[in-house]
């Protein structure tokens, strides 16, 4: 089926939205009608499995949340939980902690969509594909000099597609520790658009656990972050179990003198495809970046990483390091990695690199010689490989049993 036909059928199936997102989504739909769905001619989508993407688009959009029957672990006493369900106010009957408030209508209109647009992505198809209702926007601000912890859970519905829209404003000097959990179900699809604005000296610690629990679950997520001077943003992410997943973190240090840490892990098995396409741009001097992207691919699966760092002339004294480290556990698995640096400033310290390897025979032999069976030895080696990312998650993340899933699902 032609891309234009798929695009038209998908758009015809979508309900029209009202409120804040009406104009934005109208523009996005016109763009899709004109350009069509992604193809191999689009560099950012060239490696995508389009059969899987078309399956993502074939699911009907959810209009209610009756199909959600998930059971979640108990929440921590010191971390308020928000569960996002389609067509429901996500904070209805939730007592937000003192210092965390909903954005008012004017604040939403002034901020929503601005950070995504500032990333200047040409042919921004991922954003156009998001069809969240205006009723479902979760827009919160953390007040000045406050320090809070939140947990956001986004479940799926079998045979349905859901879209969500989240915005955070972290005011000057405020701190937020956020743990986000994304859960896929059989033959389900998710599309998320998250925007985060950090004011001066704000800090945001972002744990991101994305688990496709069963077959044929799909996810597309765009994360856009704007950092003011002396702000700190750290992102630790895990993607596993999705038949098809695409994650696009875009981080702009808009004033300089900010710090960004990104540590990501994607683990694939069977015939899954999981991709991360990151963009970090420095718009002022003295910015810092520490980025590590890891991938493990087994059986017939495919991992993709494309990481772009942009350092224009005004971003002098930038210090940026980007490293892609990958494990290939099968001769039929595939890993594509492409770290990129675009540097115009002449007084910077920027490095990047990529490695693809296998589990080391010497390490395995050492464990076997100590009486550890092969399966347990492989599990220990994988856990050690994962630890550089998962050790940064809060203890409360352990209740989601993601470590066990990462180890048990991979065949070495």
TrEMBL record:
Task: Give the superkingdom in one word.
Answer: Bacteria
SUF system FeS cluster assembly SufBD core domain spans which residues? Answer: 159-384
Q: Which GO terms describe its biological process?
A: iron-sulfur cluster assembly
Q: Name one Pfam family in it.
A: SUFBD_core
Origin species: Prochlorococcus marinus str. PAC1
What protein name is recorded for this chain? Iron-sulfur cluster assembly protein SufD
Which family is this sequence assigned to? Belongs to the iron-sulfur cluster assembly SufBD family.
Q: Which InterPro entries match?
A: Fe-S_cluster_assembly_SufBD, SUF_FeS_clus_asmbl_SufBD_core, SUF_FeS_clus_asmbl_SufBD_sf, SUF_FeS_clus_asmbl_SufD
